[in-house]
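Action item from last week, closing it out:
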Amino acid sequence: MSFSVRGQNVTVVGAARSGVAAALLLADRGAHVVLTDARSELDPAETGRLQAAGVALELGGHRLATFTSADLLVLSPGVPLDQAPVVAAREKGVPIIGEIELASRWLSGRIVAITGTKGKSTTTTLTGRMFDAGGLRAMVGGNIGTPLSSQVAVSTPETFHIVEVSSFQLETIATFHPWIAVLLNLSSDHLDRHGSMEAYKAAKARIFENQTEADFAVVNADDPQTLAMARASRASKIVFSVSTPVVPLSSIRLLGRHLFSDVMAAATVAKIAGVSHDAMVQAVESFTGLEHALEPVAVIDGVRFVNDSKATNVDAAERAIESFEPGLVVILGGRFKSGDFSLLEKPLKARDAHVVAIGEATPLIREALDGRVPVEAAESMPAAVRRSFKLAKAKGGAATVLLAPACASFDMFRDYAERGRVFKKEVLELSAEVNAHER
């Protein structure tokens, strides 16, 4: 029997993009929907859309009864499972799922799900472009920014849904069933939410749990952990590696050798789906990367500025640092999630690097690196950009300023994207100042 919510009372928790999309989808499918959020107000246009669809809004906090009296609870990815009203609902026997699980139950097309600690967005985007180049009908969504719930209405049996999935989303799946499940890599991240590396690893491994012998598990031969995590999957195991390229490495236009692995993952998925080699190469050659992922911003008086605001953990920052030659200044910091900043000492030293620390993690960065790598603090992004420029100029030659925070952004910014945009804005303002001074 197909999944139905008609006539049911459904509470959606969290009114960010995925929560709004879930609420609208549920209302369209005949549910009585309450959307609850801790914020006291939403964007007026969004509020109008929700109210027109018959969605009731509860803002400014959560009412326990709204959770415990529901027939179904749908959580946005940012909502922890140990939040008190969620726990109370579970104890009452209320079924609890996430937005991505909800949407997947109504999709007509096949799902390609991509997860990993780093590289998800790059791989997801490039996979979608390869499918497009190969003449397949592909829709990219999930954690990358377009909620899967917004694709349900246009899903057809011929559609491939290329979905980026986070550990938060995988925590709340039940029947989520990817035709192709991709695990890119695994390193320490989000331990502030998951509590332990084992719990984080278990959440990631859930991407394989509903697969059958007719499905594919695509894993990284260069990361033994991913191979071990896929071992229990019933799906056919397909590996990818930068040492056995599916497309020529010379076709890749991305900064950072670690991104080559993401390209090989995307090409492996495209090959399974029947995309031709020429179409894959065409997609790779035209792909210059994503915003906030080793994104070149400007060159000012010989100093190159690169935005890698998506490097929100230590491992991702390490890979970013390793992408550059000596003469490096790295802006690190934000809200600490997990990891060991001292792991950055070796790659920083090898590049004669200087660190400019920002945000709440500044004392931790100093403790881990100061005395071994030069560390200075800056009170804001404008101050960090300007101080980094002076330090890079002093190094001479082809110096680079790299934003690779190794931290979440929430102490100073709404998200990593806002942090990256502010960095770019300050770089461009600095460029204008320098150019005006030189005239």
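Closing note: The longest strand covers residues 32-37.
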